[in-house]
Design a protein that fits this description.
290 residues; alpha+beta; Alpha-Beta Plaits; Metallo-beta-lactamase, Chain A; 2 domains; Metallo-B-lactamas; RibonucZ/Hydroxyglut_hydro; Beta-lactamase domain protein
C-alpha cells in the first residue's frame, strides 16, 4: 500500500502518485506510459488521467505494481471493475496477467487460454482477485517457468490449480525442487502440438523460451524490445551465465518464425514475420559487438 507521506516530489499534483518505495521495475511505465514516467531511479506521475481509458490503465498499473508503490489520494470506487479487467487481453487468446511479484523484480507473466488446457507463463502474485478470474477462464493446466528468477508464487498456483510446473533442471533450486516436469538438454521440446519449448542458455544456464502456435514467443529475460535503442536486445548487464552462449542461443531463434516477443522484463514487440527476422538479425549483430 502506497503512503501519501512518502509521495515523491517528482509527481504532478493530483490523485495518482508514486511513493519512495518504488524499485524502478518499469511496470507502470509500459502499462500506462501516458501517466507514469521515469524520474531519476524511480517512477512518478507526470500526467493525471483525464478519461476513462487512461484511468483504467493507471489503475491496472496500480494493481500490478510489485511493491504497491502507486497510490491515490481518494479511495478508488472502481477497484472491483479494474480487478475484473485482468488478465488483460494482448491478442487473440493471449493475456497479460498483471499482479507482478516483487520477488521477480516486477516480471510480467502471461496466460494462454486453450481448449486443451490453459498455460500460465511465469508466475504472477497469487492475488485472490486474479485467481478468481483464472478460475473463470478455465484454470491452469501448465505453469511454464522460463528460468529461476521469475517463479514467484508458483507453489501456491500448483496447490490451488493442480497444474504441472515446467522448469529446466539447470534452473531448479530448493524452492522449485518439487516441480512436476523438469526439462533437460538443449534440444527443443514439443510439449503439445502448438507449444514448443526452446532452450536458450545465456541469461542463466537453463533459460528456455516458449513458442506458441509459431506466432507468440514468450521470452522471459532472454529477449525484449528496448524503447531507448529502438530495437530488440538482450540484457548485457543482467547476464548471469554467459554472453557468448546467449548470443549463440539468439542465433538459434533465426530458425523460427513468430510475430510477437512477450518478455518478462523489457518491452513487448509485435511485427510481421519478415520485420521480426530482420530485428532479430540486428539484435545479434549488436550483441556480437558488445
Amino acid at each position: 500500500m502506497a503512503h501519501l507521506a512518502q509521495r515523491r516530489s517528482e509527481n504532478v499534483s493530483g490523485d495518482f502518485y508514486v511513493d519512495s518505495t518504488c524499485i524502478d521495475c518499469d511496470t507502470c511505465r509500459w502499462m500506462a506510459g501516458e501517466v507514469f514516467y521515469a524520474a531519476g531511479d524511480q517512477s512518478a506521475v507526470y500526467h493525471q488521467p483525464v478519461n476513462e481509458q487512461e484511468r483504467l490503465r493507471a489503475m491496472q498499473a496500480l494493481l500490478s505494481c510489485p511493491t504497491a508503490s502507486i497510490g491515490t489520494v481518494e479511495k478508488p470506487t472502481d477497484i472491483k471493475a479494474v480487478q475484473q479487467s485482468f488478465p488483460i487481453p494482448i491478442a487473440e487468446n493471449v493475456y497479460h496477467c498483471g499482479y507482478h511479484a516483487e520477488s521477480s523484480f516486477g516480471a510480467a507473466s502471461y496466460l494462454i487460454q486453450r481448449p486443451e488446457g490453459n498455460v500460465l507463463v511465469d508466475s504472477p502474485r497469487f492475488a485472490p482477485s486474479l485467481v478468481r478470474q483464472l478460475e473463470a477462464m478455465g484454470g491452469i493446466r501448465y505453469l511454464y517457468l522460463t528460468h529461476r528468477d521469475d517463479v514467484a508464487d508458483h507453489q501456491k498456483f500448483r496447490a490451488h490449480f493442480g497444474c504441472d510446473r515446467l522448469l529446466h533442471q539447470e534452473e531448479i533450486t530448493a524452492s522449485t525442487r518439487s516441480i512436476e516436469k523438469p526439462l533437460a538438454g538443449t534440444d527443443p521440446i514439443q510439449l503439445e502440438p502448438d507449444l514448443l519449448i526452446i532452450p536458450v542458455p545465456g541469461h542463466t544456464r537453463g533459460h528456455t523460451v516458449l513458442l506458441y502456435r509459431n506466432q507468440f514467443l514468450f521470452t522471459g529475460d532472454h529477449l525484449a524490445w528496448s524503447d531507448q535503442q529502438h530495437q530488440l536486445i538482450a540484457f548485457r548487464y543482467a547476464c548471469w551465465y554467459s554472453w557468448s552462449e546467449l548470443t549463440k542461443s539468439m542465433q538459434k531463434l533465426l530458425d523460427y518464425s513468430f510475430e510477437w516477443v512477450l518478455p518478462g522484463h523489457g518491452r513487448r514487440f509485435h511485427s510481421d514475420r519478415q520485420t521480426m527476422a530482420q530485428q532479430l538479425e540486428k539484435c545479434i549483430a549488436w550483441m556480437e559487438n558488445q
